[in-house]
Request: fold
Amino acid sequence: MPCLYISTNVNLDGLDTDPVFSAATKAVAEIIGRPENLVMVILKGSVAISFNGNKEPAAYAEIVSMGGINKVVKRKLISTLGSILQAKLSIPTTRFFLKVYDTTAGQTRSKL
Reply:
């Protein structure tokens, strides 16, 4: 089950965040190759974030997945999720950072 956790310094009070959840869920499912019903998205606003020495709109996100992550997938996730945050929350793509973690990376398969 992929889990995407987004933190932003944008105040989300009073904003309709459903489009962010919908677009992010769909993007993660399609890019990683998992069903949408297995994707979890967490969105937290009003987080104290300073980027490049200022507090203009920015976001930090982490995605954890059990498999399905490679260099091409990472690039697509960064690009697509950055575009979603820019379109839905006016966060410039240059002020978005994504940490990608595959829980199966580096594991070897046992023949037992």
Notes: Strands lie at 3-8, 40-44, 59-65, 96-102. The mean pLDDT is 94.
